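REQUEST FORM: STRUCTURE PREDICTION
Request ID: SP-0412
Submitted by: Lab K.M.
Chain count: 1
Length (residues): 125
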Amino acid sequence: QVQLVESGGGLVQPGGSLRLSCAASGFNLEYYGIGWFRQAPGKEREEVSCISPSDGNTEYADSVKGRFTVSRDNARNVVYLQMNSLKPDDTAVYYCATKQCGLIIVPPGGYVEVWGQGTLVTVSS
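STATUS: Completed
RESULT:
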């Protein structure tokens, strides 16, 4: 029952916004960095962002800097990706996953690697 579930994807026009959610069950996100990844048709997977545990420091790919914001709500066991000023090139399946970025915290039960199932974001007129 250890899993991550993404939600919030859909069809949006260029310049629009979406907020993706990454909800954890079976483990505590408080101790984990969470990365957001995307894979567009015909392209390799790329890392979009990562948010560290505890202090919430963030990293962004150059392609999304200034447009995307990652945040976390440890009390609700959820990480968010706010996407603004969306472009057609942002079209991809977006995934969240546990990732060791920033501050390293040892989870009580040991580190687990978990990927979500992905949510499709389509940016098109």
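NOTES: The chain has a mean pLDDT of 95.
Reviewed by: T.R.
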